[in-house]
Fold this protein.
Amino acid sequence: MSEEDQKLIQAHSEISFLILEDEPDIGEITEECLRQLGFCGPITHVSCIDEATKALTQEENKIGFIISDWNLQELSGLD
């Protein structure tokens, strides 16, 4: 395995995700896709904006990327 490949694997293992999705099945499918792509870091699931805000403000959660549903009940996922 090349040094470049090892760096890529290491990077994938450290990236964390927050999945904001109000339909549990879609959230699970999203996580499975990330795992199949080789991401093995922590993945946090939340179903509403309030839960997402709490997850993002907790010190132990170092979220690298947010994957958000655009069509949430309370607000747009872009909000």
Q: What stands out?
A: DSSP finds three helices and three strands in the chain. The chain has a mean pLDDT of 84.
